[in-house]
From TrEMBL:
UniProtKB keywords: Hydrolase, Metal-binding, Metalloprotease, Protease, Zinc
Domain MPN residue range list: 29-153
GO BP annotation list: proteolysis
InterPro entries: MPN, RadC_JAB, UPF0758, UPF0758_CS
Pfam families from the UniProt entry: RadC
Domain of life according to the entry: Bacteria
Protein name according to UniProt: DNA repair protein
MF-aspect GO terms: metal ion binding; metallopeptidase activity
């Protein structure tokens, strides 16, 4: 790398760190899948019935929320999720564990095959990096579906 590229990269990381530190979340401890829904629901309220969004909740060792990362926005029936992007960001902020959450605008709480595949892939890949994927949760206005509660995690 040239000196200019190194300096630019260091500036970028410094700015990103400053932005991350300025984003303060109220201390909220995740104790169950229902507490995840309670915490994350406001982040989806405006888009719940319109299109899919995927968010990743990052937690510290005490299962307190340290960050909510908007991963992607999709259509009314799907959204693209990259395991690589989830884990890249988790490594960057040095998270201990994470939760994958997305909405189903249709109101259907049943996971699709794609939901199952990405959830399992993320769970397995994160283990290799000593990051625990605690759950994958689907939310709707009527309720939520937890992979962990259903014994799939």
């Amino acid at each position: 790398m040239t000196d200019i590229r190194i300096a630019t990269f260091k500036d970028f990381v410094g700015e990103l760190t400053a932005i991350y530190r300025r984003t303060e979340l109220p201390t909220f401890q995740i104790t169950s899948s229902s507490s995840v829904r309670e915490f994350i629901y406001p982040y989806f309220d405006e888009v719940m019935d319109d299109h899919e969004e995927v968010k990743v909740i990052h937690l510290n060792r005490k299962n307190q929320v340290v960050n909510v990362h908007h991963l992607s926005s999709g259509t009314d029936n799907g959204s693209l999720i990259s395991t690589k992007d989830v884990l890249r960001y988790a490594i960057l902020i040095k998270t201990n564990s994470l939760l994958l959450v997305h909405n189903h605008p249709s109101g259907n709480l049943n996971p699709s095959e794609a939901d199952k595949q990405i959830s399992n892939k993320l769970r397995d890949a994160s283990k290799l990096l000593d990051i625990t994927t605690l759950d994958s949760i689907i939310i709707t206005r009527e309720g939520y579906y937890s992979f962990a509660d259903e014994g799939l995690f």
